[in-house]
Design a protein that fits this description.
GO biological process, one term: early endosome to late endosome transport
Distance between the termini: 114 Å
Keywords: Cytoplasm
Strand content: under 5%
Number of strands: 0
Largest sheet: none
Oligomer: single chain
Subcellular location: Cytoplasm
Structural class: mainly alpha
Shape: globular
Protein name: PXA domain-containing protein
InterPro entries: Phox_assoc, SortingNexin/PXDomain-PKLike
Radius of gyration: 34 Å
Order of helices and strands: HHHHHHHHHHHHHHHHHHHHHHHHHHHHHH
Length: about 575
């Protein structure tokens, strides 16, 4: 045995040396990654945060809140579309339904499920509420499709806005009385403030009850528990909190002006950057021109040539636009055309038209919106000659030769086409998404990025910023001509520009400050919360009455009796 083992050991190969064993190890084991690389790998595998306003996060919010029974059926990574969640459609567009259901999910989670889940574990209550809301939204959409939006929402806006010009609350309320906003609240009278709030809350509930009595089916209207809860959601959370609460605050309107002006300014800069490339000119050229603007005879000659080219291009663009507008359809209500086609198909004599949309149709240039805008900027008081000249052009375009701006004229069709494009439903999803981000940061009630001013000085500073934002959008020459200058200098046309420290430059700075003061006085028209409530409620009543004329003919009790017997 000893000899056998010795012979076996002698026949076995000798182990390789240490250096050779080290060289036979795997290559990845020899070079271990440094700690920095391992840290980078861990950071790369970390999940990227999801935008709470994205479609993925919105769908997850809707599934968790409104469709919890589907969480176990679907995979974790599966992202169904909004139409796959077995929810009743709110509108005819899925992208609009996605944003509306996101609002409903937040409202139901924070204000309904927070207390209902403590009472019972029943999950059929939320689908019943959603079904009632879906009935209301689809019925409203059908009425919107039959509504002449441009005539009813644009031509009637002057009657609302002209009422804002009355500054004192007492005079304002006596001329345009709203019973539910009486008595006029005063800071030194707490009883009047509380009474006005109670009247306003009662009016909101009656208004929503009348709307539900018209829109809901009879079987849903017979359920008092669900209808009462839906009434509270619409009257308090939507109308009371958003429309009459936050939208009536002057500081929020000033913030909205600043945000809109900033967005328009960025869009204007992007458009200018696309049109004019900055590679062919020095970056200091604009600064030098701003510092010292020289008006010479040669410069005026070049300016005249540029103005002539601009005028020629404007005429060519106007002629091409009018030629294209001829192919646009006439301004007729779609539902009237459908009814006429149906009557012709059935060989029936069409009944006399009782719809006021056709009789109320006027040319776009005759809309009261233009007079409303003129009242806001105080056109007749500041530049009466300009108002008269615009009125002369308006009359000539509507009633003059060729009637290019008359009813169904080329210019009238073109303006109507652009107004209809403003009311396109494709604009709703981004608006609703931005509104949700402002009202509910991270899809939950929290501290908004827009903070109310804490003092009167901060409110005045905010109004000043809003005036400055509007001034930055307008050309300086337009604002100085419209608001007027205290000194007119004609000698600078052929001489060098003013230096920064010259008296003329100081006068220009004073004029700029005075222009901001004038713009502030124009913005003061929305500086009172009580007057803003008048405007918001008047606009809400106007829209609802145009959609549901039954509200102006019958009271809430009569509407419910007609539906329930």
């Amino acid at each position: 045995m000893i000899a056998a083992s010795a012979s076996a050991s002698a026949s076995a190969p000798a182990p390789p040396p240490l250096a050779h064993r080290a060289s036979t190890r795997p290559k990845h084991a020899a070079a271990s990654p440094p700690p920095e690389a391992r840290t980078a790998d861990r950071r790369s595998t970390r999940a990227v945060p999801i935008d709470p306003l994205s479609d993925r996060a919105t769908l997850n919010l809707i599934r968790r809140t409104l469709c919890p029974q589907q969480l176990g059926d679907k995979g974790r990574d599966a992202q169904p579309a909004i139409q796959d969640l077995l929810l009743p459609p709110l509108t005819s567009r899925n992208d609009v339904d996605l944003q509306l259901y996101a609002f409903l999910a937040i409202i139901m989670r924070e204000f309904v499920q927070s207390w209902y889940s403590k009472i019972t574990a029943d999950e059929t209550f939320v689908p019943e509420i959603l079904r009632i809301i879906a009935h209301c939204s689809t019925a409203l959409e059908q009425r919107f499709r039959k509504l002449d939006l441009e005539t009813r929402r644009v031509a009637s806006r002057s009657a609302l806005q002209s009422s804002v010009d009355a500054d004192p609350r007492e005079v304002y309320h006596s001329i345009f009385p709203l019973p539910f906003l009486s008595p006029v609240p005063r800071l030194d009278d707490n009883t009047a403030v509380e009474l006005q709030r109670e009247n306003e809350a009662t009016y909101r509930q009656l208004l929503v009850q009348g709307v539900l009595a018209i829109l809901l089916p009879t079987e849903d209207l017979e359920n008092p528990c669900l209808t009462a809860l839906v009434e509270q959601i619409f009257s308090e959370l939507i109308i009371g909190n958003v429309i009459a609460g936050k939208a009536s605050q002057p500081w929020l309107l000033y913030e909205a002006i600043c945000i809109a002006a900033r967005s328009l300014g960025e869009q204007k800069d992007r458009t200018k950057a696309r049109i004019v490339s900055g590679k062919d000119r020095s970056p200091d050229l604009g600064q030098d021109a701003a510092k010292s603007a020289k008006w010479t005879a040669q410069g005026i000659f070049v300016l005249i040539i540029h103005l002539g080219i601009l005028f020629f291009n404007a005429l060519r663009l106007m002629a091409g636009t009018l030629a294209d507008s001829i192919s646009l359809p006439p301004r007729t209500a779609l539902h009237l055309d459908e009814e006429a086609a149906e009557d012709a198909h059935n060989d029936k004599q069409p009944p006399p038209s009782t719809d006021t949309n056709l009789g109320a149709k006027v040319p776009v240039l005759s809309f009261k919106l233009w007079a409303c805008f003129g009242n806001l900027i105080e056109l007749e008081e500041r530049k009466p000659w300009l108002g008269g000249f615009i009125s002369l052009l308006q009359t000539a375009a509507i009633d003059g030769p060729w009637r290019i701006a008359g009813l169904n004229g080329p210019l009238d069709r073109l303006l109507s086409h652009h107004i209809q494009s403003l009311f396109d439903s494709s604009h709703l999803p981004p608006i609703l998404r931005s509104l949700r981000g402002a009202l509910f940061p991270n899809n939950s009630p929290g501290t908004s990025t827009l903070v109310a001013p804490q003092s009167e000085r901060e409110l005045l500073a905010l109004r000043r910023r809003a005036a400055s934002a509007i001034s930055d959008l307008l050309p300086a020459s337009v604002t100085r001509v419209y608001f007027g200058r205290r000194h007119w200098r004609l000698g600078g046309l052929f001489g060098p520009g003013d230096d920064a420290g010259s008296p003329s430059a100081a006068i220009d700075e004073d004029d700029d400050e005075r222009i901001l003061d004038e713009l502030e006085s124009l913005l003061d028209v929305v500086g009172d919360e009580y007057c803003n409530k008048h405007l918001m409620y008047s606009a809400l009543e106007l829209v609802l009455v145009r959609l549901m004329p039954e509200l102006s003919d019958k009271g809430v009790v009569e509407l419910r009796q007609d539906r329930l017997g």
